[in-house]
Amino acid sequence: MVSTMATASPPAPWLVADIGGTHARFGLVDGPGRPVCHIQRLRADEHAQLADAVRAYLASVPLPSSAPTRACLAVATPLAGDEVVFTNSRWRFSRRALERELGLLQLQLLNDFEALALALPQLTADGLRAHAAMPAPHGTLAVVGPGTGLGVAGLIETGAGWQAIPGEGGHATLSAADDFEAAVLAAARREVEHVSAERLLSGIGLPLLHRAVCAASGRPTEPEALSTEAIVQRGADGSDAGCAQTLAVFCAMLGSFAGNVALTLGARGGVYIGGGIVPRIADLFFASAFRERFEAKGRYRVYLQAIPTALILDPHAALTGAALALEQSAGAAAWT
User: Fold this and answer.
1) 184 CB-near residues (< 8 Å, 6+ apart)
2) Does the fold of domain 169-312 match that of domain 14-117+316-335?
3) What is the 3-state secondary structure (H, E, C) of 105-143?
4) Per-domain residue ranges for the chain?
5) Which of 298, 302, 230, 286 is nearest to 254 (CA)?
6) What is the DSSP string of 11-57?
7) What topology is assigned to 14-117+316-335 in CATH?
8) What residues contact 251, with CB distance under 8 A and at least 6 apart?
9) Residue 53 — left, alpha, or beta (φ > 0 → left; ψ -120 to 50 → alpha)?
10) Which of 35, 115, 304, 311 could form a disulfide with 74 if both were Cys (CB 3.0 to 4.6 A apart)?
11) pLDDT digits 0-9 by tens, 93-148
12) Residue 293 to residue 258: CA distance in whole angstroms
């Protein structure tokens, strides 16, 4: 006998996204604790607004049932109120309007590094490259990430689980550790009023850092400003001494800045380096002065020496963090 009972439709998947200044990564989650699947990366400048990129993504993937009704978007900008304006992208949107436009029951927004911080305890050995053995995540952690901009966040272990601490530490004033770096900062100040860490230690900052390093060392600069891609390529392969010096200064100053973050947050459980730039120069990074400068804090050298550091290799880690945040917020009942 054929049953006439209706078969319940599977629940709609959840949409998660990691949206930076240059790229937006999207994925779907089809159950509690399930991995993010159908991951795609779209260029932000190829879509007029975020809603257009979301629609393009959903049209290109096989949806397991109906369209997503819940989403968590990790965005590279501070969040306050309904209006979201990206720091390093032309995109902007209203949270309420986007929720209606996409037909969502729930739209959760996180800072992109808040999502990346939430993912830290979930990272496996395959997703990390550490300076030394990494202990199991515990206590307070921090993540610093040079991508298009420079993200910073913390993560605290509490009795109720891990709690992320979003912030805008990348816009803190950058300091010099020696006379040469003081000359680099002085050269940068001739172009920008405030030399934040992001002004030099990021994708948008590398061209300025290159010009400042060349000025401080007396090197001639190119008639046309070099792009970030060219600086990274020429510096990594050693074909341009000015670019190689720029990357060396980048790694050293990043070490000093990451050490400052570790001290500020008390991140004794570990500091993780994320973003898209450092994985492209990983061998150079691990041979650089990063770790020495991370520890070079005078009386607090011993304190910093005990803090492990690692490079995040998993490019989709923030999507995992966004899925975890949505699961914690919506709960298992949302899947029924």
Assistant:
1) 176, 200, 209, 212, 213, 215, 216, 249
2) no
3) CEEEEEEHHHHHHHHHHHCCHHHEEECCCCCCCCCEEEE
4) 14-117+316-335, 169-312
5) 286
6) PPPEEEEEE-SSEEEEEEE-STTPPPEEEEEEEGGGSSSHHHHHHHH
7) Nucleotidyltransferase; domain 5 (3.30.420)
8) 281, 284, 285, 288, 289, 290
9) alpha
10) 115
11) 999 999 999 999 999 999 999 999 999 999 999 999 999 989 999 999 999 999 99
12) 9
Say if residue 258 is exposed, middle or buried (CB neighbours under 10 Å; 0-12, 13-18, 19+).
buried
* Residue 59 burial (10 A CB sphere; 0-12, 13-18, 19+): exposed
Domain 169-312: which CATH class?
alpha beta
Structure letter (DSSP) for residue 66: S
Tally of CB atoms within 10 A around 4: 5
Give the pair of three-digit tokens for residue 105. 């029951």
The number of angstroms, rounded, from the C-alpha of 227 to the middle of its chain's C-alpha atoms is 20
CB 57 within 8 A of CB 40: yes
Question: Dihedrals φ, ψ of 139, to 5°?
Answer: 70, -125
Q: Is 100 helix (H, G, I), strand (E, B) or coil?
A: helix
